[in-house]
Amino acid sequence: MPVGTLVTLDLPAGSPVADLPWVITIGALGDEEDWEPVVCGPYERAHALALAQAVVADEDLMAVVEPLLPRPDAEAIRSEIALARAVASSPADDEPDQEAYETRRVRPGRPPTEAEVREGWSRIAARLTVPTG
Predict the structure, then answer these.
(1) Alpha helices, H only, the chain
(2) Per-residue pLDDT tens digits for 16-25
(3) Which uninterrupted H or E stretch holds 6?
(4) pLDDT over 80 at 75, yes or no
(5) What pTM was computed for the model?
(6) Which of 3, 6, 26, 118, CA to CA, is 20 to 30 A from 102?
(7) Residue 6 forms beta bridges with which residues?
């Protein structure tokens, strides 16, 4: 029986990253299939995890569940790029920080209903449209 794989960030309790919108990228688990990954979202983290589990549990698929980083302007995006480049070029370690990610085989669980996902979208929209500063 095929079993999919789910990869996501391993967040500490209370992490503010959990409150960001999350996306799911689903692709082939191995090299046997050649198709473009499918990206879905945004979702609340719990919904993204449950949906990803439901989709890949019985198939040879990989789902990566990760947060979106909503940035309101080009300068904020440039700052994120600069930070990513600085981290990548730091001599600290050539290997990616695997401890930051959690990989697990998944079994089917109860995915959120369409109504639950739509309610989550409303909450995400409300968080993204609140003025800051």
Answers:
(1) 45-56, 74-89, 114-129
(2) 999 999 999 9
(3) strand 5-9
(4) yes
(5) 0.75
(6) 118
(7) 63, 104
